[in-house]
Amino acid sequence: QVQLVESGGGSVQAGGSLRLSCEASGYTFNSGAVGWFRQTPGKEREGVATIAYGTRTYYADSVKGRFTISQDKPKNSLYLQMDSLEPEDTGVYYCAAHIDYLPVGDTPLSPRTSWGYWGQGTQVTVSS
User: Fold this and answer.
1) How many angstroms separate the first and last alpha carbons of the chain?
2) Sheet of 18-25: strands edge to edge?
3) Shortest CA distance to 82 belongs to which of 25, 127, 126?
4) Mean of the pLDDT values across residues 87-98?
5) pLDDT value at position 53?
6) Minimal CA–CA distance to 14: which of 90, 66, 88, 86?
7) pLDDT tens digits, residue range 23-67?
8) Contacts of 81 by beta carbon, 8 Å cutoff, 6+ apart
């Protein structure tokens, strides 16, 4: 049974930083895809950052230069360093692993991409 458990969420003022962690059990962060997504109030879930095929990273335009995704394969863990946080970053952040279906021409961030495993989410609140 695959379990992804996120941690590190919390409340922070604009301009601050948070580091999210995702620990996996029953699944090995090897050469597959892993990533972070978020659900912000009033919006559909969106891709934030992913690592695919071991090293290739993708970032949403809204977080480029501010967020950094990384993984520790021996620890089977995924991280999201979030700096210069903005109120618009408020939402529930989810860890995901293993792409079931990637449409031709799309990236792992695409809402049309199907992911196999999801964590329960961790709340991030950024106040102005």
Assistant:
1) 40
2) 3-7, 18-25, 77-82, 67-72
3) 126
4) 96
5) 75
6) 86
7) 999 888 776 899 999 998 889 999 999 998 767 999 999 999 999
8) 17, 19, 67, 68, 69, 70
